[in-house]
Design goal:
Layout (H helix, E strand, L loop, with lengths): L1 H29 L3 H10 L14 H21 L5 H11 L3 H6 L15 H7 L36 H8 L3 H8 L6 H24 L35 H4 L16 E2 L12 H5 L11 H5 L1 H12 L3 H14 L4 H18 L2 H16 L5 H17 L3 H14 L4 H13 L3 H14 L4 H13 L3 H14 L7 H13 L5 H10 L18 E2 L2 E2 L1 H4 L2 H9 L1 H14 L5 E2 L5 E3 L2 E8 L2 E2 L1 H6 L1 H7 L3 H4 L5 E7 L3 E6 L6 E9 L5 E5 L2 E3 L6 E4 L5 E5 L5 E9 L5 H6 L4
Antiparallel strand pairs: 1-2, 3-13, 4-6, 5-9, 6-7, 6-8, 8-15, 9-14, 10-13, 10-15, 11-12, 11-14
Helix pairs in contact: 1-2, 1-3, 7-9, 8-9, 8-17, 13-14, 13-15, 14-15, 15-16, 16-17, 17-18, 18-19, 19-20, 20-21, 21-22, 22-23, 23-24
């Protein structure tokens, strides 16, 4: 109070002086007579100094300005415009540390929960704005590592930092895996695309994982197929996991689409099985949540982490590897530094197409998880990526162990249980997968991802009617990982088999969403741009020499087939892809996935020798060469082959005069002995055998004629 009185007294005294000065100045400026000028001269310069051109002294103006400043200060204090004691108290509580400013580490003062320090945070700390209810007010030194919001470097400093990386890294593993198994012109290009999409999709993963997944990513691994025995992962380019054909081509009794769906020669534009729709409503369901990847120690070295991460973001992979290796050497207990090293090794493996480097990355991801004080989000992310990379290399059981550990660590995360279910499916353990999805649905009955996979399992168990509501409701949920061509495929197939005419509505929807080339052509493993039509002539294929050779030697081929039937019936194996509604249908295979069956060729040596001249069929790694015998009373459900990369030739060997026919799309034909029919089995086709005796044909698959030599060499086998 004493200070305020002094200030007031000083102010009054100064005020009177100011008033005198003002009067004098006003007089000097207001009078133009000589007398007035004399009065001004004597009265206006009490200090004896000469006046300037304006009639005022420098000292007078200095005093005016000084007094104005004093008055301003007095007003602020006297009228309590600012409570300096409160300001000082808040500043003390604020713990403003200059060294942290210089290091860009004001994130610990994040008060509004947005992950960085900004004007809004200052307002909160000064009491001008309420604290966000989502983030508890915890002093920096008391905050737990997993509860602290992450800091962000200033946006102007660099385009992306550790926080941006965090958002990028948490999607659906699953989403990427779906693309990884799809076929394109070049198998490595698929995985390369996956890795490019991965960083973008990861931005959505954290929120998707909370309710459940994607993919993914994500989602989630959405693979549905069970057998890895036929897959070779020896070369980095050939990582694509291809399921057995029966998992892809089961279909049902046909209800022919209306005539307004004519079959035309079209250009296939489908590539891969999963085209996630960009539905804004679906995206609106998912709220983004920032993952927390830095523990307390990593926050102290954030600048160094950001610098190394910037190298990785700029594509300087080798430099980034060295930078993170140095960080790991300096800070061996840093989870984020080791995770950055794993990411760089992952990127380097892709760049060099090296499985050896990738195995190193898988090991480093494991090292991250074994460190102490690993933030939960980083632990989850590391193990998910490890599982994904293990699956990429075909290490399905190792991936399953990783997924099991994730579920143990995060038992309430249903998205991880969904991933675990897929892991069981990948090793053919449908029973355990079914148990996992039953558990998920008991907790979250509206989980669309669990529903579609549970429906798939029911259908694989031939519980057709039971599978339909799960598949239908799962797709309709729009949840991440449910908009996959296989689910539309199996839902339509199940509906056909129970006589539900809505099947083609779902096929049409699948076509509109980019999963099928058309309502008729529903193959899932396709190369873009290949000519697509149900029936072909030999001239259109360009394989006229092969056709001529087959037709010239049809009796030789027939006789060897009949001899095998008579002497070794065990070589003809029943069709086991669940394609028959009824009847007896068996096959005797000479070539499978471009590999010759030596034992089988001993039963038909001349036929095998004949075919060796035609690499378009013996080298077709997406097809077979086989005898097919069908007995009376057999009906084969409408079905589609797995890929548009092949054409199928049928050579008639023993054909009853009537009762045998084949439909492809909306055209039906019959076989003739010694003649070749050619069709594209990626289109829906159906077979009837209502004759009084068996029918024997010879099936020869050939590469689609528009595939390049490079594509024929690089496409993974089916």
């Amino acid at each position: 109070m004493a200070q305020r009185k002094n200030a007031k007294g000083s102010g009054n005294s100064s005020s009177s002086g100011s008033g005198s000065s003002s009067t004098s100045a006003g007089s000097s400026g207001g009078s133009s007579s000589p007398g007035a000028r004399r009065e001004t001269k004597h009265g206006g310069h009490k200090n004896g100094r000469k006046g300037g051109p304006s009639g005022t002294s420098f000292f007078t103006w200095f005093m005016v300005i000084a007094l104005l400043g004093v008055w301003t200060s007095v007003a602020v204090v006297w009228f309590d415009l600012v409570d300096y004691e409160e300001v000082l108290a808040k500043a003390k509580d604020f713990r403003y540390n200059l060294s942290e400013v210089l290091q860009g580490k004001l994130g610990i003062y994040d008060a509004d929960g947005d992950g960085d320090f900004d004007v809004d945070d200052a307002k909160v700390l000064l009491g001008l704005k309420e604290r966000s209810t989502s983030e508890p007010a915890v002093p920096p030194e008391e905050a737990e590592p997993h509860a602290e919001p992450e800091e962000q470097a200033p946006v102007e400093a660099e385009p992306q930092n550790i926080e941006d990386e965090a958002k990028e890294q948490i999607q659906s593993l699953l989403h990427e895996m779906v693309h990884a198994e799809h076929e394109t012109e070049h198998s490595y290009h698929v995985e390369e695309t996956v890795s490019q999409d991965y960083n973008q999709d990861m931005e959505e993963m954290m929120s998707e994982q909370e309710n459940p997944d994607a993919s993914e990513p994500v989602g989630e691994d959405e693979r549905l197929h069970h057998d890895t025995d036929d897959v070779t992962y020896q070369v980095y380019e050939e990582q694509v996991y291809e399921p057995p054909e029966n998992e892809r081509i089961e279909v049902t009794e046909v209800t022919v689409p209306p005539e307004d769906n004519p079959v035309e020669v079209t250009q296939v534009t489908v590539e891969g099985t999963n085209r996630t729709t960009e539905d804004p409503e679906q995206k609106a369901k998912v709220k983004k949540k920032k993952p927390k990847l830095l523990n307390k120690f990593d926050k102290t070295i954030k600048a160094e982490l950001d610098a190394a991460e910037k190298l990785r973001k700029r594509g300087k992979i080798e430099e980034a590897v060295n930078a993170f290796k140095e960080l790991v050497r300096k800070y061996p207990q840093s989870p984020r530094a080791r995770y950055g090293k794993a990411q760089c090794e992952d990127d380097l493996a892709e760049k060099r197409r090296s499985n050896e480097v990738l195995r190193g990355a898988i090991e480093t991801y494991q090292e991250v998880a074994s460190l102490p004080d690993v933030p939960a989000d980083l632990l989850k992310l590391s193990l998910k990526r490890r599982s994904d990379r293990q699956q990429f290399l075909g290490h399905m059981r190792g991936s399953l162990l990783t997924l099991q550990r994730l579920v143990q660590l995060f038992p309430n995360d249903t998205s991880l249980k969904n991933d675990l279910g897929v892991g069981y499916l990948l090793i053919g353990d449908n029973d355990n997968a079914k148990k996992v999805y039953e558990e998920v649905l008991s907790v979250t009955p509206n989980d669309g991802f669990a529903k579609v996979h549970y429906g798939f399992i029911l259908k694989a168990q031939n519980k057709i009617a039971e599978s339909i509501p799960y598949l239908k409701e799962g797709i309709e949920s729009g949840d991440p990982g449910t908009d996959d061509g296989r689910f539309y495929f199996h839902l339509g197939d199940a509906m056909q088999r129970v006589g539900n005419k809505e099947a083609y509505k779902w096929y049409e929807l699948g076509h509109k969403r980019g999963h099928f080339a058309s309502v008729w052509q529903r193959s899932l493993y396709n190369v873009n741009g290949l000519k697509a039509q149900p029936w072909w002539t030999p001239k259109e294929t360009g394989y006229t020499e092969l056709v001529k050779s087959l037709e010239r030697n049809w009796k030789l081929i027939r006789d060897e087939g009949l001899a095998v039937m008579d002497k070794a019936k065990g070589l003809f194996l029943p069709e086991d892809e669940n394609l028959r509604e009824k009847g007896d249908w068996s096959q005797f295979t000479l070539w499978q996935q471009g590999r010759r069956n030596e034992n089988a060729c001993k039963g038909a040596p001349k036929t095998c020798t004949l075919l060796e001249k035609f690499p378009e069929t013996t080298g077709c790694r997406r097809g077979q060469i086989k005898y097919s015998i069908m007995h009376p009373g057999t009906h084969v459900w409408p079905h589609t082959g797995p890929t548009n990369c092949r054409l199928r030739m049928h050579l008639g060997l023993v054909i009853p005069k009537e009762g045998c026919k084949i439909r492809c799309a909306n055209e039906t034909k019959t076989w003739e002995e010694g003649k070749v029919l050619i069709f594209d089995d990626s289109f829906e086709h159906e077979v009837w055998q209502d004759a009084s005796s068996f029918r024997l044909i010879f099936i020869v698959d050939v590469w689609h004629p528009e595939l390049t030599p490079q594509q024929r060499r690089s496409l993974p086998a089916i």
